[in-house]
Specification:
Blueprint: H1 3-11, H2 19-23, H3 32-36, E1 43-54, E2 57-65, E3 76-77, E4 80-82, H4 90-102, E5 110-114, E6 118-120, E7 125-134, E8 148-155, H5 156-160, E9 165-173, E10 176-186, E11 189-191, H6 193-206
Parallel strand pairs: 1-7
Antiparallel strand pairs: 1-2, 1-4, 2-3, 2-8, 5-7, 6-7, 9-10, 10-11
């Protein structure tokens, strides 16, 4: 078992930073746990956080969504989506969405465990995130042309580097702009919203490793 795999298994899910890490990237939203107490019809969903071991450390697999008429158009995201009635559980949802969106085979990636759940008001999604570890990934990932514009890897060492974190103004349509939104900026890609929230929790975990 690799040092990274051992480390991650010791941290997830029993030593999670939790919602305190979320708040840094959504200071105006409040806690997801509080919001979920007031919502009865949230859409159950799941995302897959695929971590790839590299010589330089850990890479994090991300996608950029296609542009469409919807709340998350063009955003950087983890593979994932709404749970189907046929899904065995939320883990199955995360694996199925990974297969559908980027052709990640179901059997690829060792399940480490869940991270802290979040609620996204704009889409009414209750997201359950799951971490999968890959000691190697010797297959070609293929973006689904309907949903995914591109696939890329974010080096964990860069995520730990505080220089990636910044604040930007983000247009959200109809002339509206969200001011000073916390985000990560990587290779001219603005990573914000749910993805940034989960990345910040992951960042705090990775920072614990000597």
């Amino acid at each position: 078992m690799s040092d990274w795999l051992t480390f991650l298994k010791n941290q997830i899910p029993n030593e999670l930073p939790g919602e305190s890490a979320h708040l840094e990237m959504m200071p105006m939203r409040g806690l997801s746990s509080d919001a979920l107490k007031k919502v009865n019809n949230a859409k159950e969903s799941a995302v897959a956080i695929h971590l790839l071991q590299k010589d330089r450390g850990i890479d994090i697999l991300l996608t950029q969504r296609n542009t469409y008429n919807g709340a998350h158009s063009g955003q950087i995201s983890f593979p994932g989506g709404k749970r189907d009635a046929s899904d065995e559980d939320s883990i199955h949802t995360a694996r199925r969405e990974s297969f559908e969106e980027i052709a990640m085979p179901f059997e690829k990636g060792e399940l480490i465990g869940p991270m802290t759940e979040i609620y996204i008001p704009v889409s009414n999604f209750h997201i359950k995130p799951y971490v999968f570890f890959h000691s190697e990934l010797n297959i070609e990932l293929i973006p689904d042309p309907r949903e995914v514009a591109s696939i890329f890897l974010l080096p964990g060492n860069d995520l730990i580097n505080q220089k990636l974190r910044t604040e930007v103004d983000i247009p959200i349509g109809n002339g509206r702009v969200l001011k000073d939104v916390p985000c990560f900026l990587y290779e001219n890609r603005i990573i914000w919203g749910a993805t940034a929230i989960l990345l910040n929790e992951l960042k705090e975990i990775l920072c614990r490793r000597d």
